[in-house]
Structure to design on (931 residues):
């Protein structure tokens, strides 16, 4: 187990290093010189240029520059935003809570709902429920998330006027106590709903095929031959074996959500890092973009390591 | 003497409702087994022997299988039992060891956990200690250490897992144990050891056993009776020493000749010409007739009935008077 | 020739998903080819009818805020989607097949190093990287296609590698080695042509992802403004969802249909190309 953990950790660290390298390299490969990119293409303040050059040591050989870059990042300094003129780290810190609220809620709910659907479809394979679930899953799998978000807005907010279509809280009223949380929850329904609908298909597919496969395994036949009742066979033996691939999928889903949530935040004007991304793109605020890319990649790497560890806890074949 | 297992007119048919096709996998099986018997059912792949076992165990998919006839275990006719009644028989009176030992236990649960769950199907209030002691005794019978109890299946070798499956199958002292190709996936040395252990165990527990295999040498080494099956029907059933030394049915003779013998002079190996018949059709005559080198005109038109010879064996062949009525 | 066509038709019809996928693709290709004939207006034309509703003023699906006919835009947008899908899939496929083929065939240290690289790349979040690169290097459609191709090859490489690993043990490959063919020849004549089938099925997933990625990039404002694309249409319609919902709705439906067709094709190909069928066709 220890060996497995160390290997996973090393892989994660390697990934993060590569992300740093990519950041480092593409800035220098991009048209124009790196300092201009970091300063903002419009300005050309000689003082700022001198400061940046000193900070990033651009006259030094590349390896030294790279190490310097790593050092500054390790200190928590991810550069300064061109447009807002604030440290990128600070801006990200402010917004990341709202983002993770969406990501984790959607991840867990998609896992639960998608897996339950898949199990049901597997147990009643070929039935109407199976066909309906499979069809729905197929369609949602082909949807662009942001378009689905827009459609839900049109449907629920504009036409039916049931749910709020933007923001995290009602700007007109300020609630306190549980009403505040209720307000947030109400605003979460559409964005989280969009994310869940997009993610359910992968859970559905994997849990359905996994349950079908496990049910046809020899050990299940053996258990049936012993007279064990079906419910126990399913709840203890089929479930425990079939859930393994789902754990891996959870990691993949988290990776997708962490990187894709920005689009949803933009559609619903959710005050998370997604909005930062949009303004950074339109204004070509590279320090912010690269900082977000870094934070995103580290989050994904961390999630993958956690998921791998959880998988090892569930599957003894990995541990021993 | 009361029989442990008696089959009469036992049929297993696979039904494909969509295409309206039927496959007659087991036809008119009948034999009797008494306490302490060890019956080896042999036949080619596709002869229906596993289907027979799965049918007796009622483990075939209900929607696509039709079972008819009588299968009496100790007074209960299996074909008439409800699933609930069947469950009470399972493992306590009738148990099985399957072929693929590597996958016969859940890979994510410890062996001890599964043993406990299986034990408690019939004895709900047994304590972990009782179960461990009981299984420990059985592990000893099959030459396995106690540490197996705490292990996971993937930590054991194929031979060890097969022994675990065997120990597990006799945990409630069943009256009848079916071993379906249980040693086929093992190397010859391990197979030999396990067969020895089974025979020893059987004497201790006074058990009755059916051994299903395509390997006649396994039957020769460990059974007292042999039943030769072809295309879903029994050709010849009798005591091992009678049938193997003096095979009477042309198919049995063909089988014996197609095995090389370890000792004795070098014999020519002859394969039986022809192929297995299409089991979705019904045949008027003897089902082995197309491949039989002693076939007579009557064999094509009239199915030979099963008759009992003087030495006690059953045979279905016109060479021995198959058109007379059975016993 | 007719005989093999008949055989192909039989295989296609044997699997529902493959059938739907193939007919879907044919339909899609027809739309692309016959675009000038099918569309009612010139999509680039900023007409006089602004924000027309469905079926108003001869516009089947209405117009957007610049007077462009939505229906015609969707038809021409199919061309963009096809181009993006095919070119990025081609780049990704060729790269993946070569890297994976080399890794699997040569084995040993080469394989270990390349495998680790593949695994690490698969862990990286690609969409954001694509976003970054486009933001830095410019948002032309060519850039988009190249970048998608360059970032999605790992999954193809992994598949090809698995194929190469098993193929190099096959007798016909060992025979070629014995006959003295050099490694480049073996790779290009035997390994790649025989192992490429699962990669082809995986490529359809790549194509779907390429279309969705391009749409997402356009939505973020990183699309190519000179080209008509469904993603761009959704983005331009965002400001009008309360007043002119058709601008965003229909291009999205077009994406869903197209992506579904690609997935059906991929699933169908996978069903048909699974090991049982491969032993019948392989070893040409």
């Amino acid at each position: 187990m220890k060996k497995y953990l160390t290997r996973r950790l090393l892989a994660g660290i390697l990934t993060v290093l590569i992300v740093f390298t990519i950041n480092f390299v593409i800035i220098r490969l991009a048209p124009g010189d790196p300092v201009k990119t970091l300063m903002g293409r419009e300005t050309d303040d000689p003082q700022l240029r001198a400061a940046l050059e000193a900070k990033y040591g651009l006259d030094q050989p590349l390896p030294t520059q790279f190490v310097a870059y790593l050092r500054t990042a390790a200190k928590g300094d991810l550069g300064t935003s061109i447009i807002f003129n604030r440290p990128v780290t600070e801006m990200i810190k402010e917004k990341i809570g709202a983002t993770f609220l969406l990501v984790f809620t959607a991840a867990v709910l998609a896992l639960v709902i998608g897996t339950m659907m898949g199990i049901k479809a597997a147990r009643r394979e070929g039935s109407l429920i199976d066909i309906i679930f499979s069809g729905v899953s197929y369609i949602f799998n082909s949807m662009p998330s942001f378009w689905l978000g827009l459609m839900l807005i049109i449907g629920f907010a504009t036409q039916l006027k049931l749910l709020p279509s933007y923001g995290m809280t009602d700007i007109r009223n300020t609630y306190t106590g549980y009403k505040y949380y209720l307000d947030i929850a109400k605003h979460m329904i559409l964005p989280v709903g969009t994310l869940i609908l997009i993610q359910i298909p992968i859970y559905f597919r994997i849990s359905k095929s996994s349950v079908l496969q496990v049910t046809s395994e020899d050990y299940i036949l053996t258990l049936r031959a012993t007279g064990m009742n079906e419910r126990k066979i399913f709840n203890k033996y089929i479930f425990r074996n079939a859930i393994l691939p789902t754990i891996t999928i959870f990691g993949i889903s988290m990776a997708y959500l962490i990187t894709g949530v920005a689009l949803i935040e933009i559609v619903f004007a959710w005050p998370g890092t997604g909005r930062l991304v949009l303004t950074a793109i339109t204004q070509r605020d590279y320090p912010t973009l690269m900082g977000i890319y870094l934070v995103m990649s580290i989050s994904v790497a961390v999630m993958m390591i956690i998921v791998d560890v959880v998988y090892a806890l569930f599957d003894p074949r990995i541990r021993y | 003497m009361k029989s442990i297992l008696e089959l009469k007119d036992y049929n297993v048919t696979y039904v494909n409702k969509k295409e309206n096709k039927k496959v007659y996998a087991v036809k008119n099986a009948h034999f009797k087994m008494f306490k302490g018997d060890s019956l080896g059912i042999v036949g080619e792949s596709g002869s229906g022997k596993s289907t027979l076992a799965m049918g007796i165990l009622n483990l075939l998919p209900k929607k696509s299988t039709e079972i008819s006839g009588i299968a009496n275990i100790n007074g209960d006719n299996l074909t008439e039992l409800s699933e609930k009644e069947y469950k009470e028989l399972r493992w306590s009176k009738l148990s099985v060891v399957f072929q693929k030992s590597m996958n016969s236990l859940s890979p994510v649960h410890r062996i001890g956990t599964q043993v406990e769950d299986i034990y408690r199907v019939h004895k709900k209030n047994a304590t972990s200690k009782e179960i461990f002691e009981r299984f420990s005794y059985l592990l000893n019978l099959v030459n396995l250490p106690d540490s197996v109890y705490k292990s996971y299946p993937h930590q054991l070798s194929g031979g060890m897992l097969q022994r675990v499956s065997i120990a597990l199958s006799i945990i409630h002292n069943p009256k009848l144990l079916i071993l379906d190709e249980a040693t086929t996936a093992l190397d010859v040395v391990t197979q030999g050891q396990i067969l020895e252990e089974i025979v020893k165990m059987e004497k201790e527990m006074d058990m009755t056993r059916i051994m299903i295999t395509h390997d006649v040498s396994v039957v020769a080494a460990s059974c007292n009776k042999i039943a030769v099956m072809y295309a879903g029907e029994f050709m010849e059933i009798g005591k091992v020493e009678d049938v193997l030394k003096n095979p009477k049915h042309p198919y049995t003779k063909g089988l014996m000749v197609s095995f090389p013998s370890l000792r004795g002079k070098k014999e020519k190996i002859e394969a039986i010409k022809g192929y297995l018949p299409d089991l979705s059709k019904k045949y008027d005559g003897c089902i082995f007739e197309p491949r039989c080198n002693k076939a007579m005109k009557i064999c094509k038109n009239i199915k030979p009935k099963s008759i009992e010879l003087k030495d006690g064996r059953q045979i279905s062949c016109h060479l021995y008077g198959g058109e007379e009525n059975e016993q | 020739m007719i005989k093999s066509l008949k055989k192909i038709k039989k295989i296609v019809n044997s699997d529902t998903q493959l059938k739907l996928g193939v007919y879907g693709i044919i339909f899609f290709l027809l739309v692309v080819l016959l675009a000038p004939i099918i569309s009612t207006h010139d999509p680039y034309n900023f007409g006089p009818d602004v924000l027309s509703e469905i079926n108003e003023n001869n516009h089947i699906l209405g117009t957007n805020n610049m007077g462009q006919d939505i229906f015609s835009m969707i038809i021409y947008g199919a061309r963009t989607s096809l181009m993006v899908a095919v070119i990025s899939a081609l780049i990704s496929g060729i790269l993946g097949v070569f890297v994976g083929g080399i890794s699997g065939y040569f084995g040993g240290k080469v394989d270990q190093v390349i495998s680790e690289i593949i695994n690490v790349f698969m862990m990286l979040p690609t969409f954001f990287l694509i976003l970054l690169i486009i933001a830095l290097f410019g948002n032309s459609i060519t850039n988009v296609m190249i970048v998608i191709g360059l970032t999605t090859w790992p999954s193809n490489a992994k598949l090809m590698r698995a194929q190469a690993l098993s193929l190099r043990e096959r007798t016909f490959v060992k025979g070629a080695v014995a006959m003295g063919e050099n490694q480049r020849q073996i790779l290009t004549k035997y390994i790649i042509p025989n192992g490429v089938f699962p990669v082809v099925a995986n490529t359809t997933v790549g194509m779907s992802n390429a279309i969705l990625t391009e749409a997402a990039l356009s939505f973020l404002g990183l699309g190519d403004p000179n080209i008509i694309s469904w993603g761009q249409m959704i983005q331009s319609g965002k400001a009008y969802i309360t007043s002119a919902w058709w601008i965003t709705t229909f291009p999205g439906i077009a994406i869903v249909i197209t992506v579904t067709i690609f997935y059906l094709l991929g699933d169908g190909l996978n069903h048909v190309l699974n090991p049982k069928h491969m032993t019948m066709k392989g070893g040409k």
Chains B and C do not touch (no CB pair under 8 Å). Chain B has ten helices and twelve strands.
